[in-house]
Specification:
- By secondary structure, this protein is an alpha+beta fold.
- About 25% of the residues lie in helices and about 30% in strands.
- A hairpin with a 6-residue loop joins β28 (about 585-590) and β29.
- The model is unreliable at about 1-15, about 325-330, about 500-505 and about 645-660 (pLDDT under 50).
- The strands form 9 sheets. Strands 1-2-3-32-31-30 form a 6-stranded antiparallel sheet.
- The protein starts with a strand and ends with a strand.
- The relative contact order is 0.12.
- It contains 14 helices and 35 strands.
- α6 (about 380-390) crosses α13 (about 565-580) and α11 (about 510-535) packs antiparallel against α13 (about 565-580).
């Protein structure tokens, strides 16, 4: 594995570029394109001046000088509102719920009760200008973008399956048109180009034939999701022809994950060895199907295509979504969603765990505990605990055997980290790039009392925390915040000191500490019971001692119940990983799927960049967009340099948006024109030679 050495960072205001060099002398430059003067906790959102609500740079497509970015708007706030609506009651309003969220996250999630539609944002590579070119209806986001011919197409997403989903076309005249609409799905995200046609997949709203209705009635399976793979007509891109429907995917259309806001009936499409590969979510682990126009001897569906399952529960060869969990029963952890990507003629698959489910379960459990309900941490932390025990993976298909083989080198990178899924793959300059989603920032909120977050807060951050906590307490207790503010400040200062002292002994793990506590309590119970068994109760003293020991036993049993040793072990295990992990998405690259070079493990120096969901390879380099539901998505550009050709000193100038047409001498002088004299110059972040 090659070692990367950063020559600059991107974490402070004014920083715009970083140069990294490998051990063999090759190098690359990473440039922050959007709002380059801003750092952590400062608004970005891909627009000048920043917009915290433009939170996901979900996909990108290139046409000419314009890069079109499909985004999601304020998705974290929408999720809080959705979960809050389920948890609130007559005693707890949505305002109360938000007060608790603010107390937990220190105001990192920006509240917005309006379910605003997402933007499509263009970035001009020549001028460096960002523009909002389209705004969707309320509740609609854009989860895919693809260039085909002269047009750019976008697929929509909504958390509500009743909302109309659509494919949006941007034509060469700059006009937007919906070329396909449907209901019954949360997304039309999957697309690929196959056999010179554009394909999208999701669902297709349809009227059933009498035969289909009778078949469904007698099957007893209920109502399926009408999954469909659609091919754009070569003559009219408002006409989309089915090549597969729900009948081609076994029992998948009846899986309850199909109606989940987090899923999508078909998650990803990719073209490989004459087939379209399609992934779909499943509660038994994600499934991969493949199809092509039926050949002689293959059983064709109603549209002349043949489809077969190649990974999943029922294919007999592969079920990569079903994983063994260290410390648990085999198969207790399932990767419900998977994706596929072709690189250098090989097909890769990668898993996608649903992080927010575990976090919501943990937060709900904590709320119930605070409300006096008898709930165990052992139960409400189970989801997160299993996820962290199950490192994220990628697999590579062996076309001869038909098996997906695990890339163990990548699995080792994921072990002991807070990465919850592999989000995206991309190819640039002959290398495969792999980006993750890292849930460290979310787990950090859950464990902030013990992971060092509270201890390391600045005075300003601590005062903000006090104000949010005071507001939460005043709402829940219906008292004025002023009455608790000063007292809370004192208590938090004291708590910071105690937490700094209460660390495990040298060499002692958190799990060992929890086990020791549990062993002590169990030993007390055994000793008390043994003493009771040895007493016959004949004397008054014995009777008094028996009563005292019985009460002591009750107290110890109550203590054991309240300690929840297994829950404490789970919490301390989670806390240990969170405390020792770098928060923010990881980005790696490889040429063989076995050895991996690390580009970042901390979200480009910003822990709020929890994911990287989009890549776009261009002549000038690889653009990648981030997910930052706290302070807005960001856009970066990675540019490779030949061996020994390392640009230093002036990178923050040459890579700045708006300066892509400028030329510089090697000493950093801006020429403002293309040079004619012989020599070496810097242009667009690359070294050029004028002869």
């Amino acid at each position: 594995m090659k070692l990367w050495v950063l020559a600059a960072t991107l974490t402070t205001c004014g920083a715009m570029s970083a140069v990294a060099q490998t051990s063999d002398g090759t190098a690359y430059t990473i440039t922050r394109i959007s709002n380059p003067d801003c750092g952590e906790r400062q608004a970005d959102g891909l627009v000048p001046g920043g917009d915290r609500e433009n939170s996901y740079a979900w996909r990108m497509a290139l046409r000419g000088d314009e890069i079109y970015i499909a985004t999601a708007r304020n998705i974290a706030s929408a999720l809080v509102n959705m979960y809050g609506a389920k948890m609130t009651n007559a005693q707890l309003t949505i305002d109360d719920f938000w007060a608790l969220i603010d107390a937990v996250d220190n105001g990192d999630i920006l509240r917005n009760d309006a379910n605003e539609g997402a933007n499509i944002i263009s970035y001009n590579r020549t001028t460096g200008e960002f523009r909002v070119v389209y705004t969707a209806e309320d509740g609609i986001y854009f989860r895919s973008a693809v260039t085909f011919g002269d047009n750019v197409y976008f697929g929509s997403y909504s958390a509500d399956s009743k909302t109309e989903q659509y494919i949006l076309r941007l034509d060469s005249d700059g006009e937007f048109t919906k070329v396909f609409t449907t209901h019954g799905s949360v997304s039309l995200r999957a697309n690929c180009v196959y056999d010179d046609h554009l394909f999208f997949a999701g669902v297709e709203e349809r009227e059933l034939t009498i035969e289909e209705m009778m078949e469904l009635f007698f099957s007893g399976k209920g109502t399926p999701t009408y999954m469909a793979v659609l091919r754009q007509s070569a003559d009219d891109d408002t006409v989309w022809e089915r090549v597969a429907d729900y009948r081609d995917f076994g029992d998948l259309p009846y899986d309850n994950i199909m109606s989940s806001w987090a899923g999508s009936p078909i998650w990803e499409l990719a073209s490989h060895t004459g087939y379209i590969y399609a992934t779909a979510p499943s509660t038994a682990g994600f499934v991969i199907w493949r199809g092509h126009p039926a050949a002689e001897g293959e059983q064709a569906n109603d549209y002349g295509w043949y489809w077969e399952e190649v990974a999943g529960l029922n294919n007999g060869k592969n079920n990569p979504g079903l994983s063994s969990v260290a410390g648990g029963e085999p198969g207790t952890m399932r990767s419900l969603i998977g994706s596929v990507f072709e690189y250098q003629g090989r097909l890769y698959a990668y898993n996608f765990d649903h992080s927010f489910g575990g976090e919501a379960a943990a937060f709900a459990g904590i709320m119930q505990k605070l409300g006096g309900q008898n709930v165990k941490a052992n139960d409400y932390l189970e989801y997160i605990y299993n996820t962290l025990h199950n490192p994220q993976k990628i697999w590579r298909l062996d076309d001869e055997t038909g098996r997906f083989e695990e890339c163990r080198g990548f699995t080792r990178l994921m072990e002991g980290t807070t990465n919850e899924y592999v989000w995206r793959m991309g190819e640039y300059d002959g290398q495969l790039y792999i980006a993750t989603m890292d849930a460290g920032i979310f787990y950090g909120y859950l464990t902030q009392m013990t992971n060092g977050s509270l201890i390391n807060m600045s005075a300003e951050e601590l005062q903000t925390k006090v104000q949010y906590l005071a507001s939460a307490i005043s709402i829940l207790a219906r008292v004025k915040a002023d009455n608790v503010n000063d007292e809370l400040q004192t208590k938090l200062e004291t708590l910071k000191g105690l937490l700094a002292i209460l660390q495990p002994a040298d060499g002692e793990t958190e799990a060992e500490l929890a086990e020791k506590i549990g062993t002590l309590v169990e030993t007390l119970k055994i000793l008390i019971q043994a003493r009771l068994d040895a007493m016959d109760g004949d004397t008054l003293l014995d009777k008094l001692l028996i009563e005292a020991l019985k009460k002591a036993k009750e107290h110890v049993e109550d203590l054991a119940d309240r300690i929840d040793v297994e829950g404490a072990k789970k919490y301390l295990y989670i806390n240990n990983i969170v405390r020792n992990s770098e928060w923010g998405f990881d980005l790696y690259r490889t040429t063989d799927g076995e050895t991996f070079e690390t580009i970042t493990t901390d979200g480009m120096g910003d822990k709020y960049n929890y994911g990287c969901p989009s890549f776009l390879a261009t002549d000038e380099g690889l653009y990648f967009g981030t997910c930052n539901p706290f302070y807005g998505a960001q856009l970066y550009l990675l540019t490779n340099h030949p061996a020994g050709d390392v640009v230093t000193g002036i990178d923050s100038q040459v890579a700045r948006p708006g300066f892509v047409d400028s030329y510089y001498t090697t000493s950093g002088q801006n020429l403002n024109h293309r040079p004619t004299a012989k020599g070496i110059y810097i242009h667009g972040g690359k070294k050029i030679v004028i002869k």
